[in-house]
Queue: 4 jobs
Job 1
Amino acid sequence: MVRFKNRYFLCEYIQENQEKEFSERDLLNEIRDQVQYHFGDFGSAKIQFSFQVKYLNSVSRLFILRVNRDYKSIIWSTLIFMNMFKGVPIKIRILGCSGTIKKCEIKARRLLTKWVHKILKCDMPNQLRNTIIRDYQQTQQILPQITQ
């Protein structure tokens, strides 16, 4: 029996208006629609089996995608050309691609730590600072659960 070989993408979405939050299902459906638009029925059918959003954090704007190894180029090019998400201008940065979700988790932790330290250096009210620290701690607890 041969195991399924997947690739995991660590990505960040950048939106100009921070007013809208997205769910994993919204992100999954939008990327599938974009694959349908760019690659037609062929591309959509190829990624359908193994494509999944493994992690999404709306505070840090990071997400992890899983896709079959053979079709990673379809997702890669779709993410690069994605510029709208439910009518909101958006850009997606691919921060890494790995064969294991553990490596994506390690990179996400490293990026989150840098992001939190950078934000906490700025002057801000204590309530906002406490909210950021709480969200960071929750994210640190959630990340190891996706590898299990």
Job 2
Amino acid sequence: MWFAGGGGGLRKLCRAFDNEITYNSLLVRCMSRERAVNVRKINPKVPIQEAYAISNSLYDLFKLHGPLSVPNTWLRAQEAGVSGLNSKTHMKLLLKWMRGKKMLKLICNQVGSSKKFFHTVLPEDPLQVQPAAPVEHNKQAFKKKRSK
């Protein structure tokens, strides 16, 4: 019964079995992962106006000193006298809140088997247009190569 139809039944059975395995493995892979934290719903543990004031001073720190790790951010915030931060844990919570508000970006720098995470500001003008001079230069070089 399985082999009816000129021997193609066994091939169809094998394909169905392979497809079932791939769908099952895909389903297991998707369902076994933990959901990502919704950083837009983070509670900053302070009134919103105060959270924005603290985040603006932290944003200025990142603009001044570039990408910073969490311990370095805590040290710089203490040196700058950022008011409103209760603890390092509170600062981490505010950094996560700032990431949810698209003020900061978390980057990973992997060296060997160790990873270091840095917070940095997002570019203010992501659509900056490059000057057209390098494009013209490339076209001239292309024309010179074609003419030879």
Job 3
Amino acid sequence: MHSGKAFGLLKSQQEEKLNGINEAFLTDPKYEGEEDLASKLEMFKKKYMEFDLNDKGEIDIMGLKRMLEKLGLAKTHLELKKMMAEVVGSSSKDTISYNDFLNMMLGKRNAILKLILMFEGMAKEEEQKEVGPPRRKTFSDLP
């Protein structure tokens, strides 16, 4: 296991690297028309860092497997490979880099992984909305 301090350092180095990539995306003419690009990139970065990243700061098949299991979506090795290939556009690469991840999240194609993450994000927001105490029913609510 990583010691906490080294792990913290690794995380902050990873985050710096991801911030640099976000900067590049912000100035990429390809994404000029994208609404709220900066806040989307910030959100995608947080999401990416929720994965167990390998030492290169990329998502490997085990990282993908663990993340999906956390979401209650266990997948077979073959399904995972398919999902990765769909994101990176080839089956020869066995990791998803942050660039691949952003291209997926911002791209027009609906990769399965993108749909899962978007859906999970929406589910989370829904949960947060319903945190307050339930509204007391009033007479005007009665049918």
Job 4
Amino acid sequence: MGSLNGQNNHSSLPATHDCLLERITALLSRWHGLQMAVQNQWGGHDSFQKSQQLATDVFSWFIHSKAPQIEDLENLLHERMLLSLNTEIEDGSIEEVAEQLMIMHEEYLHGNR
């Protein structure tokens, strides 16, 4: 099973945006709950593609949110995991991943790319 950080061509993105997307993808690729859903294909045969779409959705959410709130990010992660990957996460990892993503985004905004 491939990891989420496969080679993606995002040449239309500015380099700094591309870096943020790569960091989001890398973080999600280390999320055990998501990896279990992908490896066991709980979202169907295209679970890997759905996991990549999750990274893109999170990236897009950050780019388009005027004032991102962690609760909204947690809801996004929960909804995508449940609806796309048929996975209910109840181990507290959604909150942990959301917190890490928020920190990553703050670092990105402050130039720590």
